[in-house]
Amino acid sequence: METFKVCGWPAWVILLFALLGFGLAALGFLLSLMKKPLGGAIVGGVGILVSLGSVGMGPVGAMLGRSMTDTALAGDHIDASQRARIREVGYAEADGCKDVGLALGTTPLLASIGALALGIVLHGRKKG
Fold first, then answer.
1. How far apart are CA 100 and CA 88, in angstroms?
2. Residue 127 has pLDDT above 80, yes or no
3. DSSP-assigned letter for residue 1
4. Is pLDDT at 126 greater than 80 in this prediction?
5. What is the pLDDT of residues 62-106, one digit of tens each?
6. What is the band of 41 on the pLDDT scale with cuts at 50, 70, 90?
7. CA-based torsion, 111, 11, 68, 85: positive or negative
8. Where are the alpha helices (DSSP H) in the chain?
9. Residue 21: exposure state from Cβ atoms within 10 A (0-12, 13-18, ≥19)
10. Long-range contact list for 101-105, CB < 8 A, 24+ apart?
11. Do 62 and 100 contact (CB within 8 A), yes or no?
12. Rounded Cα–Cα distance for residues 81 and 45 (Å)
């Protein structure tokens, strides 16, 4: 939870993409099981893209956090030893966004891949 807080607003975007991706995966499974496997495969594919947005937002949040740390350290108002320590802590906190992206984005990504695969398999059986 602390890592989520430290990540800042990118963590909320990651969470939004993860929830949307998981919802799309569930819809893809539902469509596939309701005899509409092509629709399930398409929705599963869209879920993969949205879930990848969740995973991809982690490094974006880390870059933003590092940039904010560098901006805060710009100028000569901070001692060199303090500057190094602040940069180390700031970068470590910023890199937590990558962990948040992976933690929240992996499950919907795998679920969406499953929905896509199920849709493809059931669509193949329906044709054959």
1. 19
2. no
3. -
4. no
5. 999 999 999 988 878 888 888 889 999 999 999 999 999 999 999
6. very high
7. negative
8. 2-7, 9-33, 37-72, 80-127
9. buried
10. 101/14, 101/54, 101/55, 101/56, 101/57, 101/58, 101/59, 101/61, 102/55, 102/58, 104/14, 104/15, 104/18, 104/54, 105/14, 105/17, 105/18, 105/21, 105/51, 105/52, 105/54, 105/55, 105/57, 105/58
11. no
12. 50
Provide the mean pLDDT of the chain: 92
Is the overall model pTM greater than 0.85, yes or no? Answer: yes
Rounded CA-CA distance 16/4 in Å is 13
The answer to whether the CB of 58 falls within 8 A of the CB of 8 is no
Tell me how long the chain is.
Answer: 128
| Residue 75 CB partners (closer than 8 Å, separation 6+) | none
User: CB–CB of 112/21 below 8 Å?
Assistant: yes
How distant, in Å, are the alpha carbons of 1, 2, 68, 74 from that of 7?
10, 9, 12, 21
